[in-house]
Write a structure and sequence with these properties.
9 helices; globular; Rossmann fold; binds adenosine-5'-triphosphate; ATP binding; nucleotide-binding; single chain; alpha/beta; 9 strands
Length: 300
């Protein structure tokens, strides 16, 4: 190819945008956790050999419940937190909700997350209806909004005449149902639920799933800790798998759940060393996790 010095300079050919160049369609950020760690100071009791009991004296120890967790949550995401017992799910939820302060790191959110059952000021000596009223007022609703929403909460909780009885007479299941119904009725932008959905019968599960789907449909952000794989698979748009206070993997629900269930099966059948080998196949770096989330939401 030849060129002459006096030929007009050609404008660079416009690059045809390829699929890869299309902007990512990411929902607006609602919550960001950066390098969050949480240590609990504990006392490890010495065994009193003579009486085979544990005494009150002991050495000081530290439980590292969370180790350098970073994640971003966006509008329209329902994020399931999974992991074996003691992996840090509930602790992470409490830290993300602002109920517990991390030892280091930072959590910022666009609105106060509603951690189910903790913020609602429920009183055992008051009836369910009175508690709905107080709970909704405590979450910032006006008295008129509270009156308008009481029937919706009562219907979702579905605990019959008990709604007019003091809450101290409730079973733990009824208690959880009412707390869940109150939390959802406040229409929080960020809702966090720890295990509650395993409480109740099929009809309640169906109604509560519907309520959670509505939250996502109106572009809220949800977090769910639950040991029921079907509940996570049905409700969550994304799953974060935790182990020993760290994120193992973060990404598309079905993919992460299938990796997680292989890990749990290996743990059950062959014990920790084999399970850790399975886990090491999936351990993602933070960069890989960012890519997974970004790639998943890319426009086609
Ligand atoms: N108040 C506390 N004091 C000391 N250690 C704690 C405290 N709360 C939690 N831990 C420890 O922190 C770690 C994470 O606990 P966490 O309850 O977050 O796990 P989890 O994944 O929710 O467990 P599970 O599935 O059993 O509910 C565990 O080792 C636990 O023993």
């Amino acid at each position: 190819m030849t060129s002459t010095s006096n030929s007009p300079k050609q404008a660079p050919a416009e690059k045809t945008p390829s699929t890869d160049d299309k902007p990512l369609k990411l929902g607006e950020l609602t919550l960001l956790a950066t390098d969050v760690s949480l240590d609990y100071n504990v006392r490890i009791a010495h065994e009193q050999k003579s009486r085979k009991l544990f005494g009150s004296s002991g050495e000081k120890g530290v439980v590292q419940a969370l180790k350098g967790i970073s994640l971003a949550a966006r509008k329209g995401e329902f994020i399931g937190l999974v992991g074996r017992n003691g992996s840090g799910k509930s602790t992470l939820l409490r830290v993300l909700a602002g109920v517990e302060t991390p030892t280091s790191g930072e959590v910022v959110a666009t609105s106060t997350p509603q951690l189910m059952g903790v913020k609602a000021a429920l009183m055992p000596n008051l009836t369910g209806v009175d508690n709905i009223r107080i709970g909704l007022l405590a979450m910032g609703l006006t008295p008129a909004e509270v009156d308008e929403r009481i029937p919706r909460v009562t219907e979702l909780a579905d605990i019959g005449n008990s709604i007019r009885m003091p809450m101290r007479t409730y079973s733990s299941g009824m208690n959880a149902r009412l707390r869940f119904a109150i939390s959802v009725a406040a229409d929080p932008d960020i809702l966090m639920i720890d295990e509650a959905l395993s409480t109740g019968d099929d009809a309640f599960r169906q109604r509560s799933n519907e309520a959670m789907k509505q939250l996502i449909a109106r572009s809220g952000t949800g977090f769910l800790v639950n040991h029921s794989a079907p509940a996570i698979r049905e409700l969550c748009t994304r799953v974060v798998w935790l182990d020993k206070g760290e994120i193992v993997a973060d990404g598309e629900t079905q993919q992460i759940m299938s990796e997680y269930s292989k890990f749990m099966n290996a743990l059950r059948r062959h014990g920790e060393p084999t399970a850790l080998k399975v886990k090491s196949r999936y351990n993602q770096t933070f960069y890989e996790r960012v890519q997974t989330i970004a790639g998943r939401t890319k426009t086609s």
